[in-house]
Structure formats: structure tokens, C-alpha cells
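seq as requested:
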Amino acid sequence: MMGSEPKNKTNKKSQKPSVTGKQPNETKVLLSLTGGMDSTVVAYLLNKQGYKCIGVSIVFLDDKFESFFTPSFFKPRSYQNLENLQTFCQKIGIPFYGIQASREYFDCIIEPMVAARLAGESYPLRYAENKLIMKILAEKSEKLETDLIATGHYAKIHRNLVKNEFALLTANDIKSDQSYFLCQTDASLFKKLLFPLGDLRKTEVEKLLKSFGQKIEIYSGETESIFLEGKELEFFKSQSPPDLRESGTIHTEGGGAVIGDHQGVIEYEIGQENLSTENFFGMVDKENVVVEINSMDRKIVIGPPDEFFFDCCSIVNVFFVKEIDKTKPIEVFIHHMADQEEREMCTLYFKNNNCAYLVFKKPIYSITIGKVIVFYNKSGGASHLIGSGVVYDNGDFSPINRVEKYDEPEYDTEGKVVRTPPKEFKF
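C-alpha cells:
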């Protein structure tokens, strides 16, 4: 751990009480810094308002792992970035600490990512990272006895003054919203979270950065899953069993003929697009995607994108930020992919052991196994994040044809449906 503690400059102007009930100059804030635009603007804003900020940066990679990754891959969480952050904190007059978390990163991120890759499943990298980040920040906040934890996420915390309950909401600017990344954060932490960018648009944050005169490298940080290549892929190959690096065959969907070969299933993921034509024996539709991976037989199956739409999915590890009635289905709006313009309306059917079925109002593309699905109470801005789950399987939701009488809905004299055909999930 490294640290520096320059004298903090307190804003002497009149101050409004913070969410803790204290004046800003009496409120200690643990400030998560990456060196990117968003956290930099948060630092300027809170410091200008007079909060007693303590800057921290979490280091995910040590020298052993940094050599396997290109500089941009995990730069915000590497040793390379600490010196710049320390200089920045000295400039604005706040303490700074670096937190070494490479062991936790390997256990909680790298190993599960390798396991998912070996199974041909999606891995929700940014969700897992944010869960680990919030856990580490909560522990550090307790040690430093800070009142609040501030990050550069585009999200909002709403407090119900009557019930004294806290909820996680989407940002005002739905296009910039990042509340879904926090879906696995312990709800007990909500009362300590501070998101100064929740009311701002991305363009407004960019203007603020320019007004502060701070030149930085802007990190995207919005990739929800990754297809590795180059040095990163070589690292994952080194972590995989030898038989998964052996060559195999590529097939068309439905048990079709062999149309190519590959150099190891570790190089593929379900849903992967833009497949290299070098691996095929002849002409193949460039729009094809990976729809199945059989690691035992070393087979890769590809098919057209229109075969990759699903009516429903089963989900596990279902988590809700607060208790809800699970005795009947509920309507939810889901976030399931980056750059999603509008959240999809679905029906959630509960099962036992934190499992459920999710039925879509219309078929959804690329609901891959291992993907995180986030539930909201409505679509659009200021919607409440109510829970999440992980896709376990996907398929169709079709009528059961056991009794012919119930193949079609029954109607009353006014034309209202009084009985619908029983249905089952087919995976």
C-alpha cells in the first residue's frame, strides 16, 4: 500500500448538509479513483464542495500478471497508474492510498473467467469487477471510518424518508446509465453510496473536465463481456488444460457437415461474431455466430444469427435488493446487453433455491449462458433496480399438447380469456 497525506483545503463557502446530515466539511468520503474522466470529475466536484475526501485506487494486477496483458486492458487498475493518481491527489489537496488486490482479483475474477471460457460460456467481467470493487471499498471505508463512498458511476441512490430505506436507481441520462453494473452490490451499502454524476449527462461531465483544465485518458469501462485475443488469449491458453488447446472441427448447426477446423475450443465463446474465415474450408456466411461448444469432442457449432433468438431463459443466483412476494409471477424490465436502448419487458416465474424462469414479450437475441440479467421496475430514467440473475439455459416457451381441449384459449361471452393453455419451458 502506498499513501500520501497533503493538507486538505476546505471550502469556506456556506455549505448544505450532506446525505449524512453533517456539513460537507464534517463528512469523510472515500473516493474511488481510476484516473479516468468520471472519477476525476467526481474528485473535483466533492473537493470543491468541501467534503473531506480520501482518494483510493485498487490495483488488480501485480508484476506477474501485468506482463500477460496489453497496457490498455486493465490500465486503470495497474501499478502504472498509481503515480499519476498520487500526483493528482496532491494537486487537489487530498490524501491518497493504493490498495493491492491482485490476489483477490485472481481468485474472484481470473479463475472464474477461465472456467467460463473452458465451458464455452459468457463471463460478465465488468459485473464481477464492480462487485469486487464495492466489496473492497466497503472494507476500506470501515477501516478509515469514512461516512460515505463515492464513485464515478452514472447511477442514483434514492432515500425514502418515511421508511428510511435506500434504493438504487438509474441515472437521469439513460444512455449513460451504469446502475446495472452495481446489481450485485449488498443493499446494506446503499446508505453510504454517493454518485455525484447521477444527475448529469456524459457531455456535461466532459465539459466540466475541460473547465477544470485536467487532461486525462478517457476509459470506456462499459464492456460487459469480452472476447479475448492476442496476449490476453495466450494467458488464458496457459491456464487451460492441454486437451482444450488441441485442434478440433467446426460444424454447421443441426449436426451438419464439417466446414472447418480450429486450434482449440479455448479460442471461442458462445455468441462470438466476426469469425475468422481462415478456419473454414470454403465459403461460409460471414454473419454466422458460435451457437454451441462441445469441449469434450472439441467441436464448435456455428449458425445464422436468426437462430440465436430465444423466447425465454432459466436463471440462477436470483438476487433481489429487498424482499418481494415470490408466490406469483411478476412483470420486470430487463437489461441484458451493452448499449441497450430500451429495457425489455418480461415475466418472471419463481422456482425454488433462488432459481426462476424469465419469459420475454418478444424473442431476444444472444441470451447466452453465464450472462447477467438485471431487473428494473420500469423502463427509462429513474427506474428502480430490483434484482438480477445469471442465465443457466435458454430456449422456447410453448403450449403443452397433452389435452386437445386446452390447445386454444377459452373465452367468455364477452370475449375475455378465462383460461389459457398450460405451457412448459423447452431447453
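The first helix runs from residue 37 to 48.
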